[in-house]
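Internal ticket #5521
Category: modeling
Description: The requester needs a full-assembly model to guide mutagenesis choices. All entity lines are attached below as received. Residue total reported by intake: 514.
Assigned to: D.W.
Attached entities:
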Amino acid sequence: MNEQIQKCFRDFHDKIRIKDLNREEESNKILREKRDILLNDIKTYFDKKNKDKEPEEKINFKWFNQGSYAMYTGVKPIDDGDFDIDVAIVLNLNKDDYSNSTTVKKWIFEALDTKANRTVLWKKPCITVQYTKAGEEKYHVDFAIYAGENEDGKYYLARGKETSVTAEKRWDESSPKELKEKINNKFQESEERKQFKRIIKFLKRWKEEKFKGENSGTGKPTGIVLTALTYKHFSPCVKNNFTNEIEVDDLDALLYTVTQINNSSIWSEIEVYLPVSPYNNLFSEMTTIQMDMFKEKLIALKTNLEEAQENIDPHEATKLIHKVLGKDFPVIEKEAISERSSRPAVTSSGESA
Amino acid sequence: MCKAIRFKLPGNGILQINGDVIKELSMFKQIESESTEAGGVILGRILKETNHLIIDEITTPFKSDIRKRFYFKRRKESHQKIVDKRWKESDKTENYFGEWHTHAEDNPTPSYVDKDDWKRRVKRDKLFLDFLVSIIVGRESIEVWLTDENEKIIKLKKANV
Protein backbone atom coordinates (compact mmCIF):
# COMPACT_ATOMS: atom_id res chain seq x y z
CA MET A 1 0.00 0.00 0.00
CA ASN A 2 1.40 3.35 -0.99
CA GLU A 3 0.10 6.47 0.77
CA GLN A 4 1.06 8.74 -2.11
CA ILE A 5 -0.92 6.69 -4.61
CA GLN A 6 -3.92 6.39 -2.30
CA LYS A 7 -3.91 10.19 -2.03
CA CYS A 8 -4.13 10.37 -5.84
CA PHE A 9 -7.19 8.11 -5.75
CA ARG A 10 -8.79 10.41 -3.15
CA ASP A 11 -8.07 13.52 -5.22
CA PHE A 12 -9.37 11.74 -8.32
CA HIS A 13 -12.56 10.81 -6.52
CA ASP A 14 -13.09 14.40 -5.36
CA LYS A 15 -12.76 15.55 -8.95
CA ILE A 16 -15.15 13.09 -10.58
CA ARG A 17 -17.90 12.54 -8.05
CA ILE A 18 -21.22 14.29 -8.16
CA LYS A 19 -21.93 15.44 -4.68
CA ASP A 20 -25.07 14.71 -2.72
CA LEU A 21 -28.11 16.08 -4.47
CA ASN A 22 -29.47 17.61 -1.31
CA ARG A 23 -26.37 19.63 -0.67
CA GLU A 24 -25.61 22.87 -2.37
CA GLU A 25 -23.57 22.58 -5.51
CA GLU A 26 -24.09 24.66 -8.60
CA SER A 27 -24.58 21.89 -11.17
CA ASN A 28 -26.91 20.06 -8.78
CA LYS A 29 -28.86 23.14 -7.93
CA ILE A 30 -29.79 23.76 -11.54
CA LEU A 31 -30.83 20.15 -12.05
CA ARG A 32 -32.80 20.11 -8.82
CA GLU A 33 -34.62 23.28 -9.75
CA LYS A 34 -35.43 21.94 -13.21
CA ARG A 35 -36.63 18.69 -11.72
CA ASP A 36 -38.96 20.51 -9.35
CA ILE A 37 -40.38 22.71 -12.12
CA LEU A 38 -41.07 19.61 -14.21
CA LEU A 39 -42.66 17.75 -11.32
CA ASN A 40 -44.89 20.73 -10.75
CA ASP A 41 -45.93 20.68 -14.42
CA ILE A 42 -46.87 17.02 -14.08
CA LYS A 43 -48.91 17.82 -10.98
CA THR A 44 -50.74 20.65 -12.75
CA TYR A 45 -51.49 18.33 -15.66
CA PHE A 46 -53.08 15.69 -13.46
CA ASP A 47 -54.97 18.28 -11.38
CA LYS A 48 -56.60 19.42 -14.59
CA LYS A 49 -57.23 15.89 -15.78
CA ASN A 50 -58.73 14.89 -12.43
CA LYS A 51 -61.16 17.79 -12.28
CA ASP A 52 -64.80 16.64 -12.22
CA LYS A 53 -63.66 13.02 -11.63
CA GLU A 54 -64.84 10.81 -8.81
CA PRO A 55 -62.24 10.48 -6.04
CA GLU A 56 -61.53 6.81 -6.87
CA GLU A 57 -60.95 7.68 -10.51
CA LYS A 58 -58.41 10.39 -9.85
CA ILE A 59 -54.87 9.71 -11.00
CA ASN A 60 -52.18 10.57 -8.50
CA PHE A 61 -48.47 10.08 -8.51
CA LYS A 62 -45.55 9.75 -6.13
CA TRP A 63 -41.99 10.43 -7.14
CA PHE A 64 -38.47 9.68 -5.94
CA ASN A 65 -34.94 9.96 -7.23
CA GLN A 66 -33.55 6.81 -8.75
CA GLY A 67 -30.38 5.86 -10.61
CA SER A 68 -26.90 7.09 -9.79
CA TYR A 69 -28.07 10.21 -7.92
CA ALA A 70 -30.08 8.08 -5.55
CA MET A 71 -27.27 5.52 -5.16
CA TYR A 72 -24.53 8.15 -4.77
CA THR A 73 -22.61 6.67 -7.67
CA GLY A 74 -22.83 9.66 -10.01
CA VAL A 75 -19.78 10.72 -11.99
CA LYS A 76 -19.28 14.07 -13.66
CA PRO A 77 -19.39 13.88 -17.44
CA ILE A 78 -16.08 14.39 -19.23
CA ASP A 79 -15.39 17.29 -21.59
CA ASP A 80 -18.27 19.41 -20.36
CA GLY A 81 -20.76 16.73 -21.30
CA ASP A 82 -24.36 16.11 -20.43
CA PHE A 83 -25.43 15.87 -16.76
CA ASP A 84 -28.48 13.81 -16.01
CA ILE A 85 -30.86 12.99 -13.22
CA ASP A 86 -33.28 10.06 -13.04
CA VAL A 87 -36.71 10.44 -11.51
CA ALA A 88 -39.26 7.71 -10.85
CA ILE A 89 -42.92 8.61 -11.32
CA VAL A 90 -45.20 6.05 -9.71
CA LEU A 91 -48.84 6.29 -10.75
CA ASN A 92 -51.69 4.91 -8.68
CA LEU A 93 -52.91 2.59 -11.39
CA ASN A 94 -53.04 -1.09 -12.29
CA LYS A 95 -51.15 -2.06 -15.43
CA ASP A 96 -53.92 -4.49 -16.37
CA ASP A 97 -56.24 -1.55 -16.97
CA TYR A 98 -53.87 -0.17 -19.62
CA SER A 99 -52.88 -2.82 -22.15
CA ASN A 100 -50.90 -0.19 -24.08
CA SER A 101 -48.17 1.18 -21.80
CA THR A 102 -47.57 4.19 -24.03
CA THR A 103 -51.04 5.56 -23.26
CA VAL A 104 -49.75 6.25 -19.76
CA LYS A 105 -46.35 7.50 -20.92
CA LYS A 106 -48.12 9.90 -23.23
CA TRP A 107 -49.69 11.74 -20.28
CA ILE A 108 -46.24 12.56 -18.94
CA PHE A 109 -45.10 13.57 -22.40
CA GLU A 110 -48.08 15.91 -22.76
CA ALA A 111 -47.62 17.27 -19.26
CA LEU A 112 -44.02 18.25 -20.01
CA ASP A 113 -44.07 19.20 -23.69
CA THR A 114 -45.25 22.73 -23.04
CA LYS A 115 -42.23 25.05 -23.18
CA ALA A 116 -39.87 26.16 -25.90
CA ASN A 117 -36.67 25.94 -23.83
CA ARG A 118 -36.97 22.16 -23.39
CA THR A 119 -37.13 19.26 -25.77
CA VAL A 120 -39.23 16.35 -24.63
CA LEU A 121 -38.27 12.99 -26.10
CA TRP A 122 -39.76 9.54 -26.20
CA LYS A 123 -37.20 6.96 -25.11
CA LYS A 124 -37.93 3.29 -24.66
CA PRO A 125 -37.48 3.16 -20.87
CA CYS A 126 -38.45 6.77 -20.09
CA ILE A 127 -39.55 10.24 -21.15
CA THR A 128 -36.56 12.54 -21.36
CA VAL A 129 -36.53 16.30 -20.96
CA GLN A 130 -33.45 17.74 -22.59
CA TYR A 131 -32.26 21.26 -21.85
CA THR A 132 -29.82 22.64 -24.37
CA LYS A 133 -27.46 25.56 -24.39
CA ALA A 134 -26.35 26.95 -27.74
CA GLY A 135 -27.18 23.72 -29.49
CA GLU A 136 -25.15 21.57 -27.12
CA GLU A 137 -26.77 19.04 -24.85
CA LYS A 138 -26.33 20.38 -21.36
CA TYR A 139 -28.46 18.37 -19.00
CA HIS A 140 -31.49 16.17 -19.05
CA VAL A 141 -34.03 14.69 -16.70
CA ASP A 142 -35.19 11.11 -17.32
CA PHE A 143 -38.66 10.23 -16.07
CA ALA A 144 -39.27 6.51 -15.63
CA ILE A 145 -43.00 5.89 -15.34
CA TYR A 146 -44.34 3.05 -13.25
CA ALA A 147 -47.71 1.50 -12.58
CA GLY A 148 -47.74 1.23 -8.79
CA GLU A 149 -50.97 -0.53 -7.85
CA ASN A 150 -50.86 -3.98 -9.34
CA GLU A 151 -52.33 -7.23 -8.10
CA ASP A 152 -48.92 -8.73 -7.25
CA GLY A 153 -47.85 -5.61 -5.36
CA LYS A 154 -44.92 -4.98 -7.70
CA TYR A 155 -44.00 -1.94 -9.76
CA TYR A 156 -44.16 -2.15 -13.54
CA LEU A 157 -42.23 0.16 -15.85
CA ALA A 158 -44.03 1.59 -18.88
CA ARG A 159 -41.80 0.76 -21.85
CA GLY A 160 -41.89 1.71 -25.50
CA LYS A 161 -42.38 4.68 -27.77
CA GLU A 162 -45.61 5.66 -29.44
CA THR A 163 -44.07 4.50 -32.71
CA SER A 164 -42.73 1.19 -31.34
CA VAL A 165 -44.07 -2.16 -32.48
CA THR A 166 -46.65 -3.68 -30.15
CA ALA A 167 -44.16 -6.10 -28.57
CA GLU A 168 -42.08 -3.18 -27.35
CA LYS A 169 -45.03 -1.38 -25.81
CA ARG A 170 -45.16 -3.30 -22.58
CA TRP A 171 -45.03 -3.25 -18.81
CA ASP A 172 -41.74 -4.55 -17.36
CA GLU A 173 -41.48 -5.69 -13.79
CA SER A 174 -39.10 -3.38 -11.96
CA SER A 175 -37.80 -2.72 -8.45
CA PRO A 176 -36.25 0.75 -8.43
CA LYS A 177 -36.56 1.22 -4.66
CA GLU A 178 -35.19 -2.18 -3.77
CA LEU A 179 -32.25 -1.64 -6.11
CA LYS A 180 -31.45 1.66 -4.44
CA GLU A 181 -31.63 0.05 -1.01
CA LYS A 182 -29.62 -2.98 -2.00
CA ILE A 183 -26.76 -0.88 -3.39
CA ASN A 184 -26.82 1.55 -0.48
CA ASN A 185 -27.00 -1.17 2.18
CA LYS A 186 -24.55 -3.71 0.80
CA PHE A 187 -21.92 -2.68 3.36
CA GLN A 188 -22.74 -1.59 6.89
CA GLU A 189 -19.21 -0.46 7.73
CA SER A 190 -18.69 3.10 6.54
CA GLU A 191 -15.16 2.76 5.07
CA GLU A 192 -16.21 -0.36 3.18
CA ARG A 193 -19.35 1.25 1.83
CA LYS A 194 -17.51 4.35 0.73
CA GLN A 195 -14.86 2.31 -1.06
CA PHE A 196 -17.56 0.23 -2.77
CA LYS A 197 -19.14 3.42 -4.13
CA ARG A 198 -15.76 4.79 -5.18
CA ILE A 199 -14.92 1.67 -7.18
CA ILE A 200 -18.26 1.99 -9.04
CA LYS A 201 -17.41 5.61 -9.85
CA PHE A 202 -13.87 4.75 -10.97
CA LEU A 203 -15.24 2.14 -13.37
CA LYS A 204 -17.86 4.55 -14.67
CA ARG A 205 -15.23 7.17 -15.41
CA TRP A 206 -13.01 4.50 -17.03
CA LYS A 207 -15.96 3.61 -19.25
CA GLU A 208 -16.43 7.25 -20.29
CA GLU A 209 -12.73 7.58 -21.11
CA LYS A 210 -12.33 4.32 -22.99
CA PHE A 211 -15.58 4.44 -24.95
CA LYS A 212 -15.34 8.18 -25.63
CA GLY A 213 -17.80 9.26 -28.29
CA GLU A 214 -19.04 5.73 -28.82
CA ASN A 215 -22.54 4.41 -28.32
CA SER A 216 -23.65 1.13 -26.84
CA GLY A 217 -23.10 -0.62 -30.19
CA THR A 218 -19.39 -0.84 -29.41
CA GLY A 219 -19.78 -2.70 -26.15
CA LYS A 220 -20.02 0.45 -24.03
CA PRO A 221 -21.60 -0.72 -20.79
CA THR A 222 -24.30 1.24 -19.01
CA GLY A 223 -23.83 2.60 -15.51
CA ILE A 224 -26.09 -0.07 -14.07
CA VAL A 225 -24.01 -2.85 -15.69
CA LEU A 226 -20.88 -1.54 -13.95
CA THR A 227 -22.79 -1.06 -10.70
CA ALA A 228 -24.09 -4.63 -10.79
CA LEU A 229 -20.65 -6.02 -11.70
CA THR A 230 -19.07 -4.18 -8.77
CA TYR A 231 -21.92 -5.29 -6.49
CA LYS A 232 -21.11 -8.89 -7.37
CA HIS A 233 -17.31 -8.89 -7.52
CA PHE A 234 -15.99 -6.15 -5.23
CA SER A 235 -14.38 -6.96 -1.91
CA PRO A 236 -13.25 -4.16 0.42
CA CYS A 237 -9.55 -3.37 0.98
CA VAL A 238 -9.74 -0.94 3.87
CA LYS A 239 -7.89 -2.70 6.68
CA ASN A 240 -4.46 -4.02 7.37
CA ASN A 241 -4.90 -7.80 7.56
CA PHE A 242 -2.56 -8.16 10.52
CA THR A 243 -3.10 -5.11 12.68
CA ASN A 244 -6.74 -4.58 11.68
CA GLU A 245 -6.05 -0.85 11.50
CA ILE A 246 -7.72 1.24 8.83
CA GLU A 247 -5.54 1.16 5.72
CA VAL A 248 -7.53 2.08 2.65
CA ASP A 249 -6.14 0.76 -0.65
CA ASP A 250 -8.25 1.72 -3.66
CA LEU A 251 -5.72 0.41 -6.18
CA ASP A 252 -5.90 -3.03 -4.61
CA ALA A 253 -9.70 -2.93 -4.43
CA LEU A 254 -10.08 -1.78 -8.03
CA LEU A 255 -7.60 -4.34 -9.35
CA TYR A 256 -9.29 -7.10 -7.35
CA THR A 257 -12.72 -6.19 -8.72
CA VAL A 258 -11.51 -5.98 -12.32
CA THR A 259 -9.63 -9.28 -11.95
CA GLN A 260 -12.72 -11.01 -10.56
CA ILE A 261 -14.93 -9.67 -13.35
CA ASN A 262 -12.40 -10.88 -15.88
CA ASN A 263 -11.96 -14.30 -14.24
CA SER A 264 -15.70 -14.85 -14.16
CA SER A 265 -15.86 -14.64 -17.94
CA ILE A 266 -12.75 -16.44 -19.15
CA TRP A 267 -14.53 -19.65 -20.12
CA SER A 268 -17.99 -18.29 -20.67
CA GLU A 269 -19.75 -15.22 -21.90
CA ILE A 270 -19.71 -12.30 -19.54
CA GLU A 271 -22.95 -11.93 -17.58
CA VAL A 272 -24.29 -10.12 -14.58
CA TYR A 273 -27.76 -10.21 -13.12
CA LEU A 274 -29.70 -7.30 -11.73
CA PRO A 275 -29.55 -7.94 -7.97
CA VAL A 276 -33.31 -7.29 -7.64
CA SER A 277 -36.44 -8.51 -9.38
CA PRO A 278 -36.68 -9.28 -12.32
CA TYR A 279 -33.05 -10.49 -11.94
CA ASN A 280 -32.39 -10.22 -15.67
CA ASN A 281 -28.95 -10.66 -17.26
CA LEU A 282 -27.83 -7.12 -18.02
CA PHE A 283 -25.55 -8.29 -20.83
CA SER A 284 -28.36 -10.07 -22.65
CA GLU A 285 -28.75 -7.25 -25.15
CA MET A 286 -25.08 -7.20 -26.15
CA THR A 287 -23.84 -9.26 -29.07
CA THR A 288 -20.81 -11.55 -28.70
CA ILE A 289 -18.70 -9.00 -30.56
CA GLN A 290 -19.79 -6.20 -28.25
CA MET A 291 -19.04 -8.33 -25.20
CA ASP A 292 -15.59 -9.11 -26.60
CA MET A 293 -14.90 -5.41 -27.15
CA PHE A 294 -15.90 -4.74 -23.56
CA LYS A 295 -13.68 -7.54 -22.27
CA GLU A 296 -10.73 -6.42 -24.35
CA LYS A 297 -10.85 -2.98 -22.73
CA LEU A 298 -11.32 -4.56 -19.32
CA ILE A 299 -8.16 -6.65 -19.78
CA ALA A 300 -6.19 -3.55 -20.77
CA LEU A 301 -7.41 -1.93 -17.54
CA LYS A 302 -6.31 -4.95 -15.53
CA THR A 303 -2.86 -5.10 -17.17
CA ASN A 304 -2.17 -1.43 -16.47
CA LEU A 305 -3.36 -1.65 -12.86
CA GLU A 306 -1.23 -4.75 -12.25
CA GLU A 307 1.83 -3.05 -13.65
CA ALA A 308 1.06 0.02 -11.53
CA GLN A 309 0.79 -2.07 -8.41
CA GLU A 310 4.14 -3.78 -9.01
CA ASN A 311 5.88 -0.55 -9.93
CA ILE A 312 8.04 0.83 -7.10
CA ASP A 313 8.12 4.34 -8.58
CA PRO A 314 5.00 6.34 -7.62
CA HIS A 315 5.52 8.57 -10.68
CA GLU A 316 5.44 5.63 -13.09
CA ALA A 317 2.64 3.91 -11.18
CA THR A 318 0.37 6.95 -11.34
CA LYS A 319 1.25 7.45 -15.02
CA LEU A 320 -0.04 3.94 -15.71
CA ILE A 321 -3.28 4.55 -13.79
CA HIS A 322 -3.69 7.95 -15.48
CA LYS A 323 -3.55 6.12 -18.81
CA VAL A 324 -6.62 4.03 -17.99
CA LEU A 325 -8.65 6.29 -15.69
CA GLY A 326 -8.03 9.46 -17.69
CA LYS A 327 -6.87 13.02 -17.25
CA ASP A 328 -8.52 13.64 -13.88
CA PHE A 329 -6.26 11.05 -12.25
CA PRO A 330 -3.19 12.99 -11.04
CA VAL A 331 0.36 11.94 -11.92
CA ILE A 332 2.88 12.36 -9.10
CA GLU A 333 5.76 14.56 -10.27
CA LYS A 334 9.19 12.92 -10.34
CA GLU A 335 10.78 15.96 -8.74
CA ALA A 336 8.47 15.80 -5.72
CA ILE A 337 9.52 12.30 -4.72
CA SER A 338 13.21 12.18 -5.69
CA GLU A 339 16.37 13.20 -3.87
CA ARG A 340 18.23 16.28 -5.04
CA SER A 341 21.95 16.13 -5.72
CA SER A 342 24.56 18.84 -5.45
CA ARG A 343 26.03 18.48 -8.95
CA PRO A 344 25.82 16.31 -12.04
CA ALA A 345 28.30 13.44 -12.23
CA VAL A 346 31.34 13.89 -14.48
CA THR A 347 32.09 10.97 -16.75
CA SER A 348 34.92 10.25 -19.16
CA SER A 349 35.04 8.61 -22.56
CA GLY A 350 35.06 4.83 -22.37
CA GLU A 351 34.92 1.62 -24.29
CA SER A 352 33.20 -1.72 -24.19
CA ALA A 353 33.51 -4.93 -26.13
CA MET B 1 3.61 -1.34 -23.45
CA CYS B 2 6.94 -2.58 -22.08
CA LYS B 3 6.97 -3.65 -18.47
CA ALA B 4 9.49 -2.25 -16.04
CA ILE B 5 12.15 -4.70 -14.82
CA ARG B 6 13.33 -4.75 -11.22
CA PHE B 7 16.59 -5.95 -9.68
CA LYS B 8 17.60 -6.49 -6.04
CA LEU B 9 20.32 -4.22 -4.75
CA PRO B 10 22.68 -5.33 -1.97
CA GLY B 11 20.80 -4.49 1.23
CA ASN B 12 17.07 -3.86 0.92
CA GLY B 13 16.90 -1.59 -2.08
CA ILE B 14 15.50 -2.21 -5.53
CA LEU B 15 16.72 -0.92 -8.86
CA GLN B 16 13.94 -0.46 -11.43
CA ILE B 17 14.47 0.05 -15.14
CA ASN B 18 11.32 1.78 -16.37
CA GLY B 19 9.26 0.39 -19.23
CA ASP B 20 10.15 3.13 -21.71
CA VAL B 21 13.86 2.51 -21.11
CA ILE B 22 13.42 -1.24 -21.62
CA LYS B 23 11.70 -0.45 -24.90
CA GLU B 24 14.51 1.84 -26.02
CA LEU B 25 17.23 -0.61 -24.99
CA SER B 26 15.49 -3.44 -26.83
CA MET B 27 15.67 -1.51 -30.08
CA PHE B 28 19.48 -1.82 -30.00
CA LYS B 29 19.55 -5.60 -29.54
CA GLN B 30 22.16 -7.09 -31.88
CA ILE B 31 19.85 -9.51 -33.61
CA GLU B 32 21.00 -9.15 -37.22
CA SER B 33 24.42 -10.46 -38.23
CA GLU B 34 25.48 -6.97 -39.32
CA SER B 35 24.11 -5.01 -36.34
CA THR B 36 26.80 -3.24 -34.37
CA GLU B 37 27.39 -2.62 -30.69
CA ALA B 38 25.61 0.37 -29.15
CA GLY B 39 25.87 2.09 -25.80
CA GLY B 40 25.43 5.22 -23.75
CA VAL B 41 24.90 6.49 -20.26
CA ILE B 42 22.15 5.63 -17.78
CA LEU B 43 20.24 8.38 -15.97
CA GLY B 44 18.11 7.89 -12.91
CA ARG B 45 16.74 9.08 -9.58
CA ILE B 46 16.83 8.05 -5.93
CA LEU B 47 13.35 7.89 -4.35
CA LYS B 48 13.15 9.87 -1.12
CA GLU B 49 10.93 7.59 0.95
CA THR B 50 12.32 4.20 0.02
CA ASN B 51 15.80 4.89 -1.39
CA HIS B 52 14.92 2.71 -4.37
CA LEU B 53 16.71 3.55 -7.61
CA ILE B 54 14.73 4.38 -10.73
CA ILE B 55 16.27 4.43 -14.20
CA ASP B 56 14.12 6.57 -16.45
CA GLU B 57 16.41 7.65 -19.23
CA ILE B 58 19.40 6.62 -21.32
CA THR B 59 21.49 8.31 -23.96
CA THR B 60 21.94 6.55 -27.30
CA PRO B 61 24.98 6.49 -29.64
CA PHE B 62 26.08 9.75 -31.25
CA LYS B 63 27.73 10.02 -34.66
CA SER B 64 31.05 10.72 -32.96
CA ASP B 65 30.92 7.37 -31.10
CA ILE B 66 32.55 4.30 -32.69
CA ARG B 67 30.32 1.29 -33.35
CA LYS B 68 31.72 -2.11 -34.45
CA ARG B 69 30.33 -5.61 -34.28
CA PHE B 70 32.19 -6.37 -31.03
CA TYR B 71 33.35 -2.94 -29.92
CA PHE B 72 31.84 0.35 -28.84
CA LYS B 73 33.58 3.56 -27.86
CA ARG B 74 31.63 6.47 -26.51
CA ARG B 75 33.11 9.93 -26.37
CA LYS B 76 32.39 12.00 -23.33
CA GLU B 77 31.23 15.37 -24.67
CA SER B 78 27.81 14.72 -26.18
CA HIS B 79 26.76 12.30 -23.43
CA GLN B 80 28.02 14.59 -20.65
CA LYS B 81 26.03 17.46 -22.12
CA ILE B 82 22.84 15.45 -21.71
CA VAL B 83 23.72 14.49 -18.14
CA ASP B 84 24.20 18.18 -17.27
CA LYS B 85 21.04 19.24 -19.09
CA ARG B 86 18.78 16.62 -17.53
CA TRP B 87 20.16 17.34 -14.07
CA LYS B 88 19.20 20.99 -14.47
CA GLU B 89 15.81 20.32 -16.07
CA SER B 90 14.83 17.81 -13.40
CA ASP B 91 15.39 20.23 -10.52
CA LYS B 92 18.64 18.37 -9.69
CA THR B 93 16.95 15.00 -9.20
CA GLU B 94 18.06 13.11 -12.29
CA ASN B 95 21.71 12.18 -12.44
CA TYR B 96 24.22 9.75 -13.91
CA PHE B 97 23.92 6.11 -12.77
CA GLY B 98 26.34 4.35 -15.12
CA GLU B 99 26.80 2.82 -18.55
CA TRP B 100 24.93 0.52 -20.90
CA HIS B 101 25.97 -1.33 -24.04
CA THR B 102 24.88 -4.26 -26.19
CA HIS B 103 26.41 -7.68 -26.81
CA ALA B 104 25.92 -9.96 -29.79
CA GLU B 105 25.18 -12.94 -27.51
CA ASP B 106 21.96 -14.31 -26.04
CA ASN B 107 22.73 -13.98 -22.35
CA PRO B 108 25.44 -11.37 -21.92
CA THR B 109 28.51 -11.53 -19.67
CA PRO B 110 31.02 -8.69 -19.35
CA SER B 111 34.34 -8.89 -21.24
CA TYR B 112 37.70 -7.90 -19.74
CA VAL B 113 37.46 -4.62 -21.62
CA ASP B 114 34.05 -4.00 -20.03
CA LYS B 115 35.22 -4.78 -16.49
CA ASP B 116 38.38 -2.66 -16.81
CA ASP B 117 36.29 0.25 -18.04
CA TRP B 118 33.87 -0.08 -15.10
CA LYS B 119 36.70 -0.26 -12.53
CA ARG B 120 38.42 2.72 -14.10
CA ARG B 121 35.22 4.78 -13.89
CA VAL B 122 34.70 3.97 -10.22
CA LYS B 123 38.22 5.23 -9.53
CA ARG B 124 38.46 8.17 -11.92
CA ASP B 125 34.97 9.54 -12.73
CA LYS B 126 32.99 11.69 -10.33
CA LEU B 127 30.00 9.43 -9.77
CA PHE B 128 26.58 10.27 -8.34
CA LEU B 129 25.97 6.95 -6.57
CA ASP B 130 28.49 5.06 -4.42
CA PHE B 131 28.78 2.53 -7.21
CA LEU B 132 28.56 2.30 -10.99
CA VAL B 133 25.52 0.66 -12.60
CA SER B 134 26.24 -1.24 -15.82
CA ILE B 135 23.63 -2.73 -18.12
CA ILE B 136 24.44 -5.15 -20.91
CA VAL B 137 21.68 -5.81 -23.42
CA GLY B 138 21.91 -9.33 -24.84
CA ARG B 139 19.71 -10.86 -27.50
CA GLU B 140 17.52 -12.68 -25.00
CA SER B 141 18.10 -10.93 -21.71
CA ILE B 142 19.11 -7.69 -20.08
CA GLU B 143 21.57 -8.00 -17.17
CA VAL B 144 22.81 -5.52 -14.60
CA TRP B 145 26.10 -5.31 -12.67
CA LEU B 146 27.32 -3.00 -9.92
CA THR B 147 30.95 -2.04 -9.48
CA ASP B 148 31.61 -0.76 -5.97
CA GLU B 149 34.32 1.54 -4.62
CA ASN B 150 36.55 -1.46 -3.94
CA GLU B 151 36.24 -2.39 -7.62
CA LYS B 152 34.18 -5.43 -6.72
CA ILE B 153 31.74 -6.38 -9.49
CA ILE B 154 28.37 -7.88 -8.48
CA LYS B 155 25.71 -9.23 -10.82
CA LEU B 156 22.20 -8.25 -9.69
CA LYS B 157 19.34 -10.74 -9.41
CA LYS B 158 15.83 -9.99 -10.61
CA ALA B 159 13.46 -8.92 -7.85
CA ASN B 160 9.93 -10.22 -7.43
CA VAL B 161 8.03 -7.41 -5.80
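Resolution: model delivered.
Comment from assignee: Residues 138 and 152 of chain B are 22 Å apart (CA to CA).
Ticket closed.
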